[in-house]
Amino acid sequence: MTPLRVTVVPGKPAGEQVAFAARRAILSGQMRPGDRFPSVRSLSKDCKINPNTAHKVVAQLVSEGFLAVEPGIGTVVANLPPGSPAARAALLDSEVERLVVEARRLGLTVEDVERALSEHWKRLDPEGGA
Known about the structure:
Elements: H1 14-27, H2 40-47, H3 51-63, E1 67-70, E2 74-77, H4 85-90, H5 93-105, H6 110-124
Helix pairs in contact: 1-3, 2-3
């Protein structure tokens, strides 16, 4: 059984939703470095997505440094985060832009976004800190 909690909903690409769920599980500590990641077949079956989509998700997570391929073992959760703080922050650029655009569309202030971000950060922090 895949340790990801994801219900693919219409309107957003399934691969993006599954990749987000995997990133969330890894960053929240639900999946730890060295844990085996589900095979493409398992991911496809459990998340009810096309095997080609599942393969693309795994490849994307490997290229982003969230997963590593270990010969003789399979795909595992990588030690995070790789690179400098600036390089790690660059991974968020497109997501931050989408957040800002959506927040502005909804008429939210930067303070509203900061408050929501802080609340989500605390909820996902496995250590309970800031």
